[in-house]
Amino acid sequence: MTENIIELRGIHKVYGGDNVVLDKFNLDIKKNEFLTLLGPSGCGKTTLLKIIAGFEQADAGSVIFEGKEINDLPPNERHVNTVFQKYSLFPHMNVYENVAFGLKIKKVPKDEIDKKVKEVLKLVALEGFENRAIDSLSGGQQQRIAIARAVVNEPKVLLLDEPLGALDLKLRQEMQVELKRIQKKLGITFIFVTHDQEEALSMSDTIVVLNKGKIQQMGNPVDIYNEPKNAFVAKFIGESNILPGVMLEDFRVVFADREFECVDKGFEKNEEIEVVIRPEDIKMVKPENGMIVGKVTSVIFKGVHYEIELEENGRTWLLHNTRYAEVGTELGIDIYPEDIHIMKKVEIEAGEDDEN
C-alpha cells in the first residue's frame, strides 16, 4: 500500500467570524501522486494549499508530514515549494539567477548550483536559456522557469496554485502534458489547484472535488467522471443530463415518464433518486425507434461533435453527437443501461463566487 506523505486531520478555517472555508477537513495525500484539488471559486482549495505550505494557519486541526505534525513549522522549514498563477519571477535577474536563487540562499556551493540549474533547465526543456532575460520569455517559458525554480530545491511536495490560468488555450493544453511528464520524471508529489475540469481530468492520478470546504467526491479521473456521487459533482465535472427518478428495485428505475433497465443496485425500493446521463452517451435514432422522442431546438457545431438540444414533454435533453440534426425536426433517443448512473438524492448548494 502506498505510504501517505501528507495527512490532514480536522482542518478547520473560518474567515470573518462566520465564513467557514474548510469544515473539519480530512485528506490523505500519497507519496509520488499527482493530486488535484478541484472546485469552484470559494470552495477552500487555495486556503488548503496555503495551510499545507505554512502561509496560513488553520483554526483547528493538524497538518502531518511524513508522520510528524508541522503546524508550527514556518514555510521555509517545510519540504514543500509552491508555484503560483503569477509566477513571481524576479524581472531584474536572468533565467539562471532566478532558478539558482533558492540554492544561493541555502549557501549551496557554486559548482553544485551550476550542475543543479543545468539539470533542471533540461528537465523543463529550456537548456541554453541561462542568460535570457525574464521579460524576453513567453508565458509558457516563464511558467517552466517558475517550476524549475521550485523543483531545483528538491522539495518532497510541489504545490501548484492554478499555474496555467494565465496561458492561452493551446499553450495550457501543452503545459498539461509537460507538467505530468515533469511529475513522473521527478517522482515527487504534486498537489495541483484548479477550477478547470479538463486540467484535472487530463493530469491527475487522484481528483478531490470540493465545495464549501468539504469533499464531495475523491477518486481517479475515470471514476469521478463516470460515477459522480451527487448532482454537484455531475454538474461540475463535464456536462450532464440530471433528472429526478425513482429506483423501483435493483436494476430497474423510472425517470422521464418511463421505466428503464440500469446496472445499479443497493437502493431502497421506490427510493427517490437522481439520474445522470452524459450527453455523449445518448444514442440518436429515428423517431419511430426511440425510447424517447422530442423536437430538436438547437444545434451548435463544437469542432469534434454537434451539441444538440432536444425538447421533450417539458424537459430539455443535451446530446453530443458527430451526426447533424436539423432544428425543428423530430428525433428519437436511446439510453443503454450502462449509461444510466443513479445517485442518492442530496441537496448541495453551489460554491460562492469569491476565491478563498
UniProtKB/TrEMBL annotation:
InterPro entries: AAA+_ATPase, ABC_SmlMolc_Importer, ABC_transporter-like_ATP-bd, ABC_transporter-like_CS, Mo/tungstate-bd_C_term_dom, P-loop_NTPase, PotA-like, PotA_ATP-bd. One of its GO terms (molecular function) is ATP binding. Its EC number is 7.6.2.11. Keywords: ATP-binding, Cell membrane, Membrane, Nucleotide-binding, Translocase, Transport. It comes from the Bacteria. Residues 6-237 form the ABC transporter domain. It catalyses: ATP + H2O + polyamine-[polyamine-binding protein]Side 1 = ADP + phosphate + polyamineSide 2 + [polyamine-binding protein]Side 1. GO terms for cellular component: ATP-binding cassette (ABC) transporter complex. Part of the ABC transporter complex PotABCD involved in spermidine/putrescine import. Responsible for energy coupling to the transport system. Belongs to the ABC transporter superfamily. Spermidine/putrescine importer (TC 3.A.1.11.1) family. The complex is composed of two ATP-binding proteins (PotA), two transmembrane proteins (PotB and PotC) and a solute-binding protein (PotD). NCBIfam families: MMSYN1_0197, potA. This is Spermidine/putrescine import ATP-binding protein PotA. It comes from Peptacetobacter hiranonis (strain DSM 13275 / JCM 10541 / KCTC 15199 / TO-931). The gene is potA.
